[in-house]
Structure formats: C-alpha cells, structure tokens
Design goal:
By secondary structure, this protein is of the alpha/beta class. Helix 3 packs across helix 4, helix 3 packs antiparallel against helix 6 and helix 4 runs parallel beside helix 5. Bound molecules: nicotinamide-adenine-dinucleotide. Nicotinamide-adenine-dinucleotide binds next to helix 7 and helix 8.
C-alpha cells in the first residue's frame, strides 16, 4: 500500500494518492506561511465588501455553487473515492447529498435565522427600555478540515460562514487536497467575488500558519492532538476556536429493541467510511439476555460486506485512507486479543490483504481494554454486555469523549431517559451516526470531543458576533442609580435589592414610592448644583 503521509514529498507540493491502488491522483501547490498570511490579508479586504452584500445575493451565489456541484457530481464522487478510499456510494450519501442539502438550507434561511430579535428584559420594559439582539459577521473565518468527509465538512462550514457575511480561508487535509480545490473551483464558477473564499492547500505546517495568521475565528475539525495544538496557538492571539474532535461513540442495545434493525444499524454505524467517521460506533453495549442472538446477527451481516476499491460500485467498504490509520486499527485489534477479547470475524489474519481491512467484530470487550478507550477510526465493532439501564449509561459515559451515542429500544420513554443520561453532543434513539448530515441541528461534542458547535442555529451563531442594542424611550426620567448618592440613595438601593430584584410584580409596585422619592432627590440635587 502506498503511504501518502510517510512518502517524502517535494517541499512545495502536496501529492494526492489513491489509497486503494497507490496511484497518484494529482498534486497541488503547497502554500508557504507567507502566502497563507497574504491570503488572510486579502480575505480581510474582501470582507469590507462581502459583509455589505445582501443575503439574497450571497444566497444566489451559494445556490449557483450548489448547481456547479450537481452538474459534476459523478466526477466529484469519483474524486472523493479516489483520494480517500470510500465507496462512490458513500461519497454521494455521506458527502455530496448532505452538503447539497445544507447549502440550500443556509442559502434560504440564514437571513431569518440571524434576523434581529427583541429580547424581554423584565420590568425594565415597563420603564421605557427595550433590547434587540443583532448579529454581525466576524471577519475572516479560518477552516481546517480532515480527510474523512473531505467535501461536506469544509464546504458546509464555508457556506455557513459565507452566508453569515464572513470571508473564508480554508486549509483542506493533505490527504484530500484535490477535493479541497474543487471547493474553490465551484465558488469561482458561481461568481463569488475574488478572495471571499480562498483555499490554501498544504499540510499541518500550512494549518499552523493559518491559525497564527490573525483570523477572526478558527473552525477546526480533526484529532484531539491537533485540536490541543491549535487551541494553544490560538490563545496567543485570543483567536476564538471551535474544536470538532474525535469520538469513541457508544451504541446501547436493549433486549426489547428490534434486534434485526439494531444489527443492521450497528454494522453500518461501525463500518461505513471503513469506520473512519468521528461518530462511528466504536463501542457496542448489548443487554446481556439478548447478547448471543444480537452478536450472531451482527456477525452474519458483517461477513456479507464486500471490501474493495471504492470506485467499484458494489464495494461496501473501501480502502483505509492511510498506512498510519491502518496500523492503528491493527494495533487495536491485537490489543483486544491480548487483553482477552474474542475476534469473531475479520481481524489481522484475514485473507483480505492491505490496503483494505476487513470488517471486524469483537466480543467480550471490556471498558478497561485500551482499544475501548482510544479512538480506533477503523472497521472494528467491539461488543460488551450490560444488565441494567443504569449500568448501560455508566458504561457509555466511561470515556474521555462525548461526541455522539445511540440507544436502541422499543420503549421510547426508556430510550429518551437513557439518552438524557449519556453525556454526548448528539444522542439518537433508534438511529445511528448520520445526524451530522442534518443541517438544521447542532453538531459538536462534550469532553475531549471538543467545544463549540457547527450546523444549526448554534453553529451559525459561532460565526457571528452578538450585539445588544438597548434603547431608553423615557429620557425625561433619570435612572435611580445615577449620581449623586445620599442616605436616601442607599435606602432606595436596599429596597431595590429586596423588592425590585425579586422579579415579583407585587414587590415592584411596593418599590415605586421609594423609586419616585429617589428620582425627586436626583432632580433636586441637579437643580441645586445648577
Ligand atoms: P488531524 O488532526 O491529523 O488533521 C486535521 C487537519 O489539521 C488537517 O487538515 C491537517 O493538515 C491539519 N493540521 C495538522 N497539524 C496541524 C497543526 N499543528 N496546526 C494546524 N493544523 C494542523 O486529523 P485527521 O486525521 O485529518 O482527521 C481524523 C480526526 O478527525 C479523528 O480524530 C476524527 O474523529 C476527527 N473528526 C472529528 C469530526 C467532528 O465533527 N467532531 C469530524 C471528522 C473527523
């Protein structure tokens, strides 16, 4: 297998290799740190015009870029598959379809989602005050993305940032640079003004240059290790960061679930994208009394999956994206065996040879095993058992990660109850993995899975600054807390603490006499001073 990461590369080029064949897919120029800084400067200039571009014009451009993707979707799906190994079917279902949906959603709805909103301010509202919350674009948004969903992650974030009025500098993964350049191509075809979106191809060094180039927000998706490095570097310039990091997502299957459906879901949730999804099922907990039947159903399904080149239409599982990634998978499977788990199908000795890794189902997994703790990011499905509802939630929460989780049961009340006990950014009941594909709902994690959100209103708000506009219509009255102070002022504030700040209308009415007396005092003092 060709080793895209390890291979010595010309210093100024990034070469994209097909992990299934080792063939070169293409090469792009690597941006120097100076060029990255220049791109950010250009983006800052472009922001001055873009932020004033009306929402409907922004939307028109996004919809034209969307059309450009639609018109070449077969070749884009093929490119994604060749650059990172996933089946063409998944390039469509998990990259192209979700991002096309996201594009139409944010093109049509951003203006409304970010419309100024009146905010209730309690009894101050009765005193002539009003508050409106407005949202302002931040400036230049830097995006650094991984290779596993090389279109939908960077393009989705770019569209949200652009619709919110920001300009964008995007650094795609070095494993999928051509898909990254495709993003700038479709926007160019759509007539996006120059420098509003720039793609700076390169590796970690290029990414680091972008973080320190003075962007106004950094959207990072990738590993915990890189996320920590980025947070540290961003702290130097107080650059705000959203970190979308790894996961070790649990799937909890109760005995009363539709076990056939749950087994279908487990197999897809663990093996889609060859298990290289941040929200892959990486730990499965099945209720003890259903374990035997459920495990058999899972193994039967896993054994039917066809492993092969992603560009062949009937491949279910494509190549692992890099040699580095494959080694981690092998190490984790060996660790499972060493620590007493049982490999039921697949595993390191399988007939299916490199660069592919067979779907591997493991039983007798325990949370203390190393490979139940570290992110594997490969086609493995370790199964453990539980006896009670509370044990299920405890096992699911026994992790440093908190990205996504799923609960399977025919009792929806129980499903929602257990979902509420699991600390993860998304918990599905009788569904698995796919919700990054919903544009309307927030995506992000707890604990080491990162902070901040992308997608949904919450994700959009990461890309704007919040401004509170507060208006007082009763300018004929002074505020009771204004100068000058006196014994009467202290008495009034004491009353204010007891009555006004209680939130009760009854108490507020009782406070009015001291308020009027204080206002009269302020006026009297004012006229004496004059
Ligand atoms: P990675 O951290 O190795 O690389 C991600 C990006 O960061 C790449 O573009 C890389 O060039 C860049 N980078 C590397 N070092 C950098 C540095 N010092 N400064 C700035 N940028 C740097 O991750 P990966 O292998 O591409 O992706 C896999 C990881 O991403 C997994 O852990 C997976 O769980 C996570 N992921 C998370 C989500 C999510 O939404 N939470 C989604 C997809 C992937």
């Amino acid at each position: 297998m060709t080793k895209p990461i390890e291979k010595p590369l010309p210093a100024d080029e990034i070469i994209s290799f097909d992990p299934a064949t080792g063939e070169e897919v293409g090469r792009v120029r690597k941006f120097t740190s100076e060029e990255v800084a220049e791109a950010v400067e250009h983006a800052r200039d472009a922001f001055e015009i873009w932020k004033r571009t009306p929402f409907d014009e922004r939307a028109r451009i996004v919809m034209r870029a969307r059309q450009a993707i639609l018109s070449q979707m077969d070749s884009i799906a093929n490119l994604i598959s060749r650059e990172m190994g996933k089946p063409v079917a998944e390039a469509f279902s998990t990259d192209i379809v979700p991002v096309l949906d996201l594009m139409q959603y944010f093109a049509r709805n951003t203006e409304d989602l970010l419309a100024p909103r009146k905010r209730g301010i309690g009894y101050l509202g009765l005193m002539g005050r009003s508050s409106v919350i407005t949202y302002k674009p931040l400036g230049v948004v830097g995006i650094i993305s991984p290779w596993n969903f090389p279109l939908t992650i960077p393009l989705g974030e770019a569209v949200m940032a652009l619709m919110a009025g920001n300009t964008v500098v995007l650094k795609p993964s070095e494993l999928t640079p051509l898909t990254g350049e495709k993003i700038s191509e479709v926007f160019e075809a759509a007539g996006l003004p120059k420098h509003v979106l720039q793609v700076v191809s390169g590796d970690g060094e290029t990414g680091a240059a972008l973080v320190s180039a003075g962007v106004d927000k950094m959207m990072f998706t990738g590993s915990v290790k890189t996320g920590k490095a980025i947070a540290k570097s961003a702290a130097e310039t107080l650059t705000p960061v959203v970190l979308e990091l790894g996961g070790k997502d649990p799937m909890v299957v109760f005995a009363d679930a539709d076990l056939e459906k749950a087994a279908d879901a487990a197999v897809w949730g663990a093996f889609t994208n060859a298990g290289q999804a941040c929200s892959s099922v990486e730990r499965l907990y099945v209720e003890h009394k259903a374990a035997e039947r459920f495990t058999r159903l899972v193994v039967e399904r896993a054994q039917k999956l066809r492993v092969g080149k992603g560009t062949e239409p009937d491949s279910d599982i494509g190549a692992i994206s890099s040699e580095t990634q494959r080694k981690i998978v092998e190490e984790h499977v060996s660790a499972f065996e060493r620590e007493g788990a049982e490999i039921l199908t697949g595993g390191n000795d399988s007939d299916v040879k490199s660069p592919f890794y067979p779907p591997t189902v493991i039983s007798k997994a325990k949370n203390k095993m190393r490979a139940m703790r570290d992110e594997t990011f490969g086609p493995t499905l370790p199964i453990a058992t539980f006896k009670t509802e509370s044990e299920a939630a405890e096992l699911a929460n026994d992790t440093e990660f908190g990205l996504a989780a799923s609960v399977w049961t025919s009792d929806l009340a129980k499903g929602k109850r257990v979902a509420g006990k699991i600390l993860a950014g998304t918990v599905c009941v009788n569904e698995v993995l796919y919700t990054h594909g919903i544009a309307q709902t927030p995506w992000g994690g707890f604990k080491n899975s990162g902070y901040g959100r992308t997608h949904g209103l919450e994700g959009l708000k990461e890309l704007v600054g919040v401004q509170h506009i507060h208006v007082n219509r009763f300018t004929f009255l002074p505020d009771v807390w204004w100068f000058r102070y006196s014994k009467n002022a202290v008495d009034t504030f004491r009353e204010m603490a007891r009555k006004y700040a209680s939130g009760s209308l009854f108490d507020l009415v009782r406070f009015l006499p001291s308020m009027w007396s204080r206002i009269r005092d302020i006026r009297r003092q004012g006229s004496e001073d004059n």
